[in-house]
Design goal:
With 141 residues, the protein is of the alpha+beta class. It folds into 2 domains: 72 residues, P-loop containing nucleotide triphosphate hydrolases (Rossmann fold); 51 residues, no CATH class. Helices cover 28% and strands 23% of the residues. A 3-stranded antiparallel β-sheet has the order 2-1-3, covered by helices on one side. A hairpin with a 2-residue loop joins β1 and β2. It is globular and about 45 Å long. The mean pLDDT is 91. The structure holds adenosine-5'-diphosphate and magnesium ion. Adenosine-5'-diphosphate binds next to β1, β2 and α1. Adenosine-5'-diphosphate (ADP) binds next to β1, β2 and α1.
């Protein structure tokens, strides 16, 4: 099987007013096509940091992240916290990405409404995030 992800000697350090936090300390692993991988560890061990680096949301400090086949830009992950804007309806939250890119068309909007239906959220499209459960908010994401 082909490798679809190679991580070599990955380091990530965060700097803040209190000093330096080593979030990832020399991590290396490979993932093969079709493999199902779980990253397990105590709170604060660097799991979210790793996913953020893989998805290009955070810069690595050093090391290599190689996607031999798939385009990194197409990767995404389910964030622990929903990042919905409380003052926008569910539909408007879903349309925000298109809106900022100036890409809202009637077809695009209909597709979003159809996807909300697929995820069992059709009746909530005009509601605000505060009226959704945690799982429902994650489905909106
Ligand atoms: N933006 C940040 N600024 C400073 N330190 C951070 C930041 N994000 C995470 N950390 C620190 O990096 C370490 C790893 O965090 P994280 O990747 O969130 O762990 P996990 O997801 O495994 O709970 C922790 O010590 C955390 O406090
Ligand atoms: Mg985490």
């Amino acid at each position: 099987m082909n490798d679809i992800l190679i991580v070599n000697n990955l380091y990530k350090t965060y700097h803040n007013l209190e000093g330096e936090t080593i979030a990832i300390d020399n991590l290396s692993f490979k993932v093969k096509d079709g493999e199902f991988i779980a990253i397990v560890g105590p709170s604060g061990c660097g799991k979210s940091t790793l996913l953020s680096i893989l998805c290009n949301l955070e810069d690595k400090t050093s090391g290599e992240v190689i996607f031999p086949i798939k385009d990194k830009q197409k990767l995404g992950y389910m964030l622990q916290q929903d990042c919905l804007f409380p003052w926008l309806t569910i539909l408007d939250n879903c349309l925000l990405g298109l809106k900022v890119q100036n890409k809202i068309t009637k077809e695009a909007k209909n597709r979003v409404i159809k996807l909300l239906d697929t995820y069992g959220l059709k009746d909530f499209k005009n509601k605000y995030p505060s009226s959704l459960s945690g799982g429902m908010k994650q489905r909106v994401l």
